[in-house]
Design a protein that fits this description.
- GO terms for molecular function: ATP binding; ATP hydrolysis activity.
- With 302 residues, the chain is of the alpha/beta class.
- The chain has 2 domains: 2-218, P-loop containing nucleotide triphosphate hydrolases (Rossmann fold), CATH 3.40.50.300; 222-300, Alpha-Beta Plaits (2-Layer Sandwich), CATH 3.30.70.
- The protein is built from 10 helices and 12 strands.
- The strands form 3 sheets. It has a 6-stranded mixed beta sheet with strand order 5-6-7-3-8-9, sandwiched between helices. Strands 2-1-4 form a 3-stranded antiparallel beta sheet, covered by helices on one side. A 3-stranded antiparallel beta sheet has the order 11-10-12, with no helix packed on it.
- A hairpin with a 2-residue loop joins strand 1 and strand 2.
- The radius of gyration is 23 Å and the shape is globular.
Length: 302
């Protein structure tokens, strides 16, 4: 278990992390969602001890912490962070990077060979990285973190620059890592992809967690009805709703209507659908809020 307790980080009096406490368990994938500048990367830097908070502590398995240099070394044997493309050496091959990372964490070349096969990198991995495309470099950075084989892996925008096929491949590998009882914490803005593999998704703002979506609790989330409407249809529907809307959620597109129907009876839902038919509205869907809708509500709605 990775635990952060009462973490506060402030720059020039502005709090980036505000008395933040979180617990993460092995065998889960956790997504961090927020616009730039709201604390995602700062949190990762604090967990790695690249940045010391004004208050609070980070512990792993209740025994590892950053209270001494030897403890820091022990923590970094357990926790790794995603390499940046700017850290790659142009004149070294991808294979040499992978061997270097594996050896730094005491892992064998056999581990490297398995990673190359898993990520389908054999056709280019022995070429110098200066010949790589952005997508190839991103896949190499992911492979380098796999070569550490740490129990906790922190990844900042791991899917950047990847095409859909490679995003699907990386997603499969992430799920496989979870099955190996590893903890994966991912900061990402690619929300649709994140929802396919994350067990928990945390929305951050002003240094705090403002919303948490748990895959295990999706069954209990509110149901919404989405519809494509014009302004006249919108006004007619809102004027004839079976009951007042209690949902605060809004959509950016004025041609879309979002209605919370979780507390509607079957007859009230039928009445609402009849209004849709009377207004000749045929394009509608029933379901939970998407991550994109949640993102707009928390960060973009005015």
């Amino acid at each position: 278990m990775l635990s952060i307790k009462h973490i506060t980080v402030a720059f020039e009096g502005k709090k980036v992390l505000d008395d933040l406490s979180l617990t993460f368990k092995l065998g889960e994938i956790v997504g961090l969602v927020a616009p730039n500048g709201t604390g995602k990367s700062t949190l990762i830097n604090v967990i790695m001890n690249f940045l010391q908070p004004q208050t609070g502590s980070v512990t792993f398995k209740k025994i590892y912490n950053y209270q001494s240099k030897s403890n820091e070394v022990a923590m970094h044997q357990q926790i790794s962070t995603f390499p940046e493309q700017g850290d790659l050496y142009d004149e070294l091959s991808g294979y040499e990077h992978l061997v270097m990372f594996a050896q730094m964490w005491g892992n064998s070349k056999h581990t490297v060979d398995n990673i190359i096969t898993k990520l389908q990198m054999s056709s280019y991995v022995k070429q110098k990285t200066k010949t790589y495309s952005l997508g190839m470099k991103q896949r190499l950075c992911f492979a380098m973190q796999l070569a550490t084989d740490t129990q906790v892996m922190l990844m900042d925008e791991v899917m950047n620059g990847l095409d859909p096929n490679n995003m699907a491949l990386i997603s499969e590998v992430l799920v496989d890592l979870k099955k190996q009882n590893k903890l994966i914490i991912i900061a990402s803005h690619l929300l649709d992809n994140l929802e396919t593999y994350a067990d928990r998704i945390l929305f951050m703002d002003r240094g705090k967690i403002i919303y948490q979506r748990n895959k295990q609790h999706l069954l209990y989330e509110d149901q919404f009805l989405r519809a494509s409407v014009d302004n006249y249809q919108r006004q007619r529907i809102l004027a004839n709703l079976p009951k007042e809307q209690t949902s605060p959620f809004t959509l950016k597109n004025p041609q879309k209507l979002l209605l919370n129907i979780s507390d509607y009876s079957n007859s009230e839902v039928s009445g609402l659908l009849n209004i849709f038919l009377q207004e000749n509205i045929q394009d509608f869907q029933l379901g939970k809020l998407t991550l994109n809708e949640l993102y707009f509500h928390y960060y973009l709605a005015t």
